[in-house]
Amino acid sequence: MASGSKKLTSADEKKIVASVRSGVPVTVLAKTYGVTRPTIYRAIRSFHEKAEGANVGTANVSFTVDWNTLRTFDAVTGRLGLKSRADALRRVCRVPSAFLEPDPDLADALRDVARELSAIGRNVNQLVATKNYEVRRGDKLKLTKPQQQVLSDLLDHIDGVSTQVREMEGKRASETFRRFVAGMKGVDDGTD
Q: Is 58 a residue whose pLDDT tops 80?
């Protein structure tokens, strides 16, 4: 382990923060600069404290993504006519928090779907319970015409609910994308 007696300069702190952001482990940086890991952590903290002092009212945000994600983000940024990644990311941070909150209409629709699925489940359970009782009595497993019709109706109902869910997913995805693009472009998201 390094002695930790070396004093890191502001330029060193800046390089260390850039290295950490690019994924270099703190242990490697400590060996490179001939200091301890806690000294590297103090340098990172010092860099951010100085930046906060210089940029009162602002904060640095740092994260990593894979190259494919970054290329996709750059493509969207270009299509939206934004100047830079930084500009795009600032806009993402400014999009109102309501953008990420659940849509009350969608939540109601999903509750309705849940009720429908629950009703279907109860009907299936009743049908299965009846058939189980008959089998336990020694009867052969056979569906009567009315039971076949109930089962057919339940399967149709399940298909209808499935279609309803796909339509809700598509509508929500389209609306979410529209709101996201409007927020990125700085367009007021008024009601149509």
A: no
